[in-house]
Amino acid sequence: MSSNAGPGNAGLLIALGFLLLLSLANSYYIYSLEGEISALKEEVRELSGPLGLSVYSQSDPPGGSITMAQKSIPIVAVSDDEIGVMGKMNLRLIPGSNDILIDTNPFSEPEVQYAVKKAVAVARSRYPGAKLDMDFVFNFTSTRAQLIGGESAGAAAAILTIAALVDRDIKKDAVITGTINEDGSIGQIGSVLEKTKAVSDAGYKYFLIPEGQADVIYYERQVERRSTDLGFDIMRSKYVPRTLNISQAAFEELGLNVIEVSNIDEALPYFFED
After folding, report:
1. Which helix (H) or strand (E) holds 232?
2. Nearest-5° Cα angle at 210, 154 to 87
3. Which domain holds residue 256?
4. Do the domain assignments include residue 183?
5. φ and ψ at 257, to 5 degrees?
6. What is the DSSP string of 239-268?
7. Which of 35, 176, 206, 235 has the greatest number of C-beta atoms within 10 Å?
């Protein structure tokens, strides 16, 4: 009687064993990777917890198939290379329990989450009788920015939330930048010049900025020449402070109306029809 465990069969068994070990290794790697992704999501949620917010990724959106209202508003930011970037902030109201949720793609810094929380509080303070039976689901879109940072979109978030609560359309010819305070006042921001150019290039008619920021101080380089008795000149450079009024310059050179506003009430007429 001949044995079945010949050289050919032994090689086959070794090959099958190797494939089995490779499969187990891949399964462990996939399991480990999924665990790291879950841990990262949990870390983001814990970061947002102290702010009273929730965050989600586009792969696991919050529940609620019924949209009670959906609105969008343009926003302007500045990239890492100091270039103005246009984007959009979107808001959906869905049945819920008064939670605020912010999409994590692109990732938004805690300052943005804090600004959105204040914006919702300002909007809700105008309608104290509103039922607490909805969730506020925010997300951001931008052609360039992968990281949304700062509080300069706070005023826009307040206007967007008001529009969603009262179900009013937002006019498409205005952009606002500014932080939002709990009393509805609008605070100052940075990079006004860069943002003004981006808004103008995008074709908007009005750009609302915080009160007191229309005048920008910049430094102009001046070169002085002084002759010497030795027959050569000495060149000396110095920088002289100058003041540029953005409202005047933007209208004359770009056709853009740059308007200072101090609070949300002054800004609303530029976004809502009478």
Report:
1. none
2. 45
3. 55-214+245-270
4. yes
5. -90, 110
6. EEEEEEEHHHHHHHHH--EEEEESBHHHHG
7. 176
What is the DSSP code string of 118-143? HHHHHHHHT-TT--S-EEEEEEEEES
Counting the structural domains of the chain, the total is 1
Q: What is the pLDDT of residues 68-94, one digit of tens each?
A: 789 999 999 888 778 888 999 999 999
Tokens of 74: 């343009």
The secondary structure of residue 204, as a DSSP letter, is: -
Distance CA 37, CA 44 (A): 11
Lowest mean pLDDT among 115-119, 129-133, 234-238, 254-258: 129-133
Tokens read off for 70: 């959906």
Residue 228 lies inside a defined structural domain of this protein: no
* Domain assignment of residue 32, yes or no: no
For residue 175, tell me if it sits in a domain. yes
Question: How many other C-beta atoms are found inside a 10 Å radius of the C-beta of residue 258?
Answer: 23
pTM (predicted TM-score): 0.71
Alpha helix (H) ranges present in the chain? 7-48, 110-125, 154-166, 192-201, 246-254, 264-267
CB 200 within 8 A of CB 162: no
Length reported for the chain: 274
> Amino acid letter at 69?
A
Q: DSSP class of residue 92?
A: E
Provide the CATH number for the domain around residue 138: 3.30.230.10
125 class by beta-carbon count within 10 Å (0-12 exposed, 13-18 middle, 19+ buried): exposed
